[in-house]
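Q: C-alpha cells for this one, please.
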Amino acid sequence: MITADSGASLPELEPLLTRLRAFWFPGGEEAARSVQAVKNKQRGEMRQAPGSPWIPFTAEERIETRRSAFCWEARYRGGKLGWISVTDAYAEGHGRLALKLGGVIPVKKFLGPDFDRGELQRYLAGLALCPPIVLNHGSLAWAAPAPLTLRVRDRQDPTGATVDLEVSTEGCPAGARAERPRMVGNQTILTPWSAICGEFREYEGIRFATRLEVTWHLPEGPFVYFREEVTEFTILR
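A: Here is the predicted structure, written as C-alpha cells:
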C-alpha cells in the first residue's frame, strides 16, 4: 500500500506513482512483491576532490525491500599501502562508513546522526537499483511537491531525511536530489547532492538501472565524484 504524506495532493501523487510502477514492473507487480532483497555486483571509480585522480573499485551490494537497509562493500586499490575495503551501510536506523587496510586494519570509521541521515538518503535515492522497494516497504511516505517530482521519506526515521525523485512523463526515473551531509575536514555540511541513473535493463520482469553517476553541487560548481556500472543482479525471494 502506498502511503501519502500529510499535505500531499493525491490527484497529483497517484498518477506519478502509477507511471513509475508501470515503468519499473513491465512484467506486472505480482512477482516483484515477493522480492525480499536484491544483490548486485558493480565496478566503477571514485575521487576525493575536484581534480584528484579517479580510483577504480569493485563492489557488491545487498539492498533490502521491506525495510530501510543496505550494505555496500567495495575494494579499492590503495597504491603502496595495498588495497582498501570500504563498507557503506544503513540498518536499524543507523548508518556507518568504515575503511580498512587490506580488509583487516581499521583506518577510519564514521558514525552518528549525520551519517544516519546521509546513508538513509543513499538508500532512498537508490530505488532504481532495487525497484521492489516501492511496493514492499511499509513505512515509506510519498508526496508530489512539484510536477514530475516524487518526494519520499521513511516514517520511522527521526532525522527528517527526504529524497526527491525526478520522473519523466513516461514514468522513467531520471535521477534523485537531496540535501545530504558532506564531510569537510572533521565536520559535516548539508550540501546539494544528486544522482543520475540510466541504461535500464529488464531482469525477471523488473527494470533495473545499470549506470549511476553522483554529484556534489558545490558553490564553485558541480563535482562528480562517483560513477558505477552494475554488472550482475541477483533477486532474493
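A few notes: The chain has a mean pLDDT of 93. The two ends are 19 Å apart (CA to CA).
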